[in-house]
Amino acid sequence: MALASGEGKQYLSFGVLASGYIGKLWKQDEYRFVSTMKREGFEKSEVQNYRNGRRLMEAYLRSGKGFAELKAVIMSPALGKVRRFLVKGGKLPPEEHPLLQFWKLNIDFDLREILPKIEAPILGVWGSKDDGVPPRQALKTFNKKVKNSCSQGVLIQNADHGLYYRKETGPGWAPKEGRLLSRDYTKSIKTWLKKTLVNRACFKK
After folding, report:
1. Does the pTM exceed 0.90?
2. How far is CA 81 from CA 34, 64, 72, 132, in A?
């Protein structure tokens, strides 16, 4: 998720939300990893083992207890292939690692609770071939949650999670070599900004 913004002297003047998961960040992280595993051909049992490990991880992050049990499960042979694929170095980070500290602080972060509090207009953009978030679901929830009537959600056809043009069939990332941002993505930003920034009604407090 990326949220770029223009800022006035005293308030946020507008925002652009790109490929954002409109829900709990922890759930988005799971969705992204599961999508990647399925695309890479992992067995259903391996995906389920990953989800079981996540449940233990969530319990630890919420309580601060059970790290030894969590480590034993994550480092078990049953999760070996999954662990090596998803975790750099194939090892569970120590308790004091910044990543674990981040999740302890943000496990309940939910964009659905933030969007209604933003009075500025927001452009939400998703790619139709995004496998990091469910794009159509995100677009639908975004349109329900935004407060400013000048806010707009856009689905970019044939764009991936990074909003690069993807000609290949199905969701996934565009190949790195020679990939370009979708022209429809950049066009949607320009069109929305031109229309919104000149409309004073969009910025009434």
Report:
1. no
2. 14, 26, 15, 21
